[in-house]
Amino acid sequence: MRFPYIVAVVAVSQIGATDCGQVIKDPGFDLWCGDSLCAWKLERGDITRVPTWHEGDSGVSLDGSDTAIEQLASFNGGDGDCIVFDLVANVEDGAEVYLNVDVQGDGVLEMHERLPTSHWKPLSYAIMFKRPFDGVRFELAKTGAGAAVLAQIGAATSDKCEGLTPLDPGPRKNGASCDSGADCVSGICKPSPTPVNQWATQVCMGCDPAQQTCGGGETCGLVEPVAPIYAIPVACEPPHGREVGELCLGNDDCASQICNHEISSQYGYCGGCGILGCPTGQTCQQPWSIDTGFGPQPFGPWTCSNGKPGDTCAADADCTSARCTGSVRKQCGDGRACATRDDCPDASGLTPGACTTVGIQGGRCE
Fold first, then answer.
1. How far is the first Cα of the chain from the last one, in angstroms, to the nearest whole number?
2. Which of 124, 145, 177, 264 could form a disulfide with 14 if both were Cys (CB 3.0 to 4.6 A apart)?
């Protein structure tokens, strides 16, 4: 299946014909972590590191009859709207290999291009995108019993897209960049309390925090991000469902009914104390100290010191027993929860920000 907005070129001169920096990580399949690619995720099937036509240059063999690898790139409308995707392929008869492109990484393919049968042929694809967009998921998929090896993959911004129809992701999910409500599934496009891209401060929202447009006893608050390329989404959710240490927009988000806001910040953290302070002999304090890249800065929930058994806590130091039990809280630089740094937005270039252990979420003193 071919698409009118794609130009496919089989020519050595097209390899690396880009104007700016690379869009994807590890643009040559050079980085392997054991038997796995470091920068590409194995979606299904099996892969093997194999030699190519060039000594010292390794490639990836897509093994089996149904194999796919993918990478979510943070390339967005602020970087440009055109890229050239290059690779060298050795695709035998009996194998079908596709370059799939999913704008916004929302699971819907805007491009499904079959690579031709070839013997170490360089291929180049110019692809244009409709702004605004926040990222692109690239997938290389193979079906069939024939062998397929890929090497020297790269993607970089370019000006080679004149005359192409841009890939349009359609209505965007909550947390995606937008220019107007027409860009959004929800029809609401507002300034984001947690922007990811400096170039785009408006995002699609499931509700309007200023208007409290939720019904049925719900509140308009922060919910978990669907991907690191998105801002932390705003949507309707049940009230008082967030634990101490989780992000919040207002008091109604938190089980404690206390949302501690930082100065000049639109969002905060559910805490255990606030303007009403603490019982006599205790101090309302911030137990977390997070390195934001400019030295340790306090940013997190407020809790009472010298906690007794059963009292709210966010760190061992909150408790007289020095024991705060709950879930370990790890988060990115913008406050979103994370398991690894791959859950965090890119901090510089193509490198994700740190995923740091900051304290305890939903803690109680023993």
1. 62
2. 124
Domain boundary among 120, 136, 157: 157
Q: How many CA atoms lie within 13 A of 82 on its CB side?
A: 16
The number of distinct structural domains making up the chain is 2
Is residue 239, in this structure, part of any structural domain at all?
A: no
Q: Would residue 305 count as lying in a domain?
A: yes
* pLDDT reading at 8 higher than 80: no
Neighbours of 211 (CB within 10 A): 10
Q: Which of 127, 157, 187 is where one domain is finished?
A: 157
pLDDT category at 229 given cuts 50, 70, 90 is very high
Which residue range is the domain that position 84 belongs to?
Answer: 7-157
Distance of alpha carbon 20 from the chain centroid? 22
- Both 20 and 146 in one domain: the answer is yes
Encoded tokens for 8: 């496919």
* Gyration radius from the chain CA atoms: 24
Question: Sorting pLDDT into bands at 50, 70 and 90, what band is 293?
Answer: low
Residues 6+ apart with CB under 8 A from 163: none
Q: How far apart are CA 313 and CA 191, in angstroms?
A: 33
Collapsing DSSP states into helix, strand and coil, what is residue 210? coil
Sign of the CA dihedral running 35, 71, 333, 277 = negative
Q: How confident is the model at residue 197 (pLDDT cuts 50, 70, 90)?
A: low
Q: Is residue 172 part of a domain?
A: no
Residue 358 neighbours by CB distance under 10 Å? 22
**What are 84's two structure tokens?**
């050239």
The string of pLDDT tens digits covering residues 141-158 is: 999 999 999 998 889 999
What tens digit of pLDDT does each residue of 327-347 get? 999 998 888 999 999 899 887
- Residue 174 forms part of a structural domain: no
Q: Which residues of 167-202 are buried (b: 16+ CB within 10 A; e: fewer)?
A: bebebbbbbbbbeeeebbebebbbebbbbbbeebeb
